[in-house]
Design goal:
With 94 residues, the protein is α+β, with helices and mostly antiparallel strands. It contains 2 helices and 2 strands, in the order ββαα. The protein is elongated, with a radius of gyration of 21 Å.
Length: 94
Amino acid sequence: MKDLSIKVNIAGRMYPLTVQQSEEENIRKAVKAIDEMVRDYEQNYAVKDKQDLLAMVALQYATQALELNDKSTTLDKGLNDQLKVLNGLISEVL
């Protein structure tokens, strides 16, 4: 894949990035989501320091990622248990 040099603006600061062309759309969506969350925090809380706002956004995303990971682990365990049962049933038939 071809690498692209792009610039993104996060919380008023420009960041140059080198990304794969296939990643560009998701990166731009992520930047937009981060900026929207920073704006929401800025409007709803008495926090004006961009560093604090970015830390709050990072905390929210990290919490969401951990929750998704926990759900995924639970689903994987449930699926694994079901596969063991099915494998046992197939073994009995054979």
